[in-house]
Specification:
252 residues; alpha/beta; TIM Barrel; eight-stranded parallel beta sheet; 9 helices; 41% helix
């Protein structure tokens, strides 16, 4: 069965969350999904959804583009909830110039994750080397780390693989211009990659103009199977096993 390792069911893009929640609950091919928070409010809502929907698990975190007026003490209190499997998504983004504040939030949230023995989900928009620098100079995740929607760079990949960190592939791997992502896929060990939809964003081919749903993860798995020249079922098995190793609370 499939695990969508990163999605946003409570995104403002979705006008009827209940419809999309029910679609996941009724989809027998989907074992579980990780609904990822972007700030305190969305993280709290994610937990509330997970409490009433058994397939749903939560990740709580402050996204680098939403750090204004966010209290990390409140985040810590959320993170102790039983269905929280990670801290994230957290990281750095070069869209805004407030890097020092972004770095502070990233460092403090990794620290929280380490205290709670939780993995982290990293958002890194053109900032892989800066995130790696923070790992080396300040604090490194101790209980697992995944770079979601990894921006392809083979040198950065070497560092992540050496440290046993995961790479997550989303809809972009299905695009015609995905040459660099394919190079990364061929270079990453089979025990260190995950699949995600980032729903409702980054719809895969052939649905790029539509709202992305967790059910579309099958297109990502199919494409990866084609690239790696193995069966769909083998990629499904590999990624499900890897996701459970990364997010250990999924199996509790």
């Amino acid at each position: 069965m499939i695990i969508d390792s990163h999605m946003h069911i409570n995104s403002i893009v979705l006008d009827d969350k209940t419809k999309y929640i029910n679609a996941i609950n009724k989809n027998f091919a989907i074992e579980s999904v990780i609904n990822v928070g972007l700030n305190y409010a969305s993280s709290k809502e994610s937990i509330d959804i997970s409490k009433s929907n058994f397939k749903f698990f939560s990740s709580v975190g402050i996204h680098p583009l939403y750090i204004e007026n966010q209290d990390l003490k409140n985040l810590y209190d959320l993170a102790i909830s039983p269905k929280v499997v990670a801290i994230g998504e957290i990281g750095l983004d070069n869209i805004k110039g407030n890097f020092e504040e972004q770095k502070r939030y990233l460092i403090e949230q990794i620290t929280i994750a380490n205290i709670l023995h939780l993995p982290v989900i990293i958002h890194s928009n053109n900032c892989n080397r800066l995130v790696i620098d923070i790992f080396e100079r300040f604090v490194k995740p101790k209980y697992g780390c995944v770079f979601h929607c990894f921006q392809p760079d083979l040198e950065d990949l070497k560092y992540l693989v050496y440290n046993g960190f995961y790479i997550s592939f989303a809809g972009r791997i299905t695009y015609n211009n995905a040459k660099k992502s394919i190079e990364v896929l061929n270079a990453v060990p089979n025990n260190l990659f995950l699949v995600e939809t980032d729903s409702p964003y980054i719809s895969p081919e052939p649905l790029r103009k539509e709202i992305n749903e967790s059910s579309n993860i099958k297109y990502i798995i199919k494409k990866i199977a084609e690239i790696k020249r193995c069966s769909y079922e083998e990629i499904e098995r590999i990624t499900s096993e890897n996701t459970k190793k990364m997010f250990r609370r999924l199996t509790l």
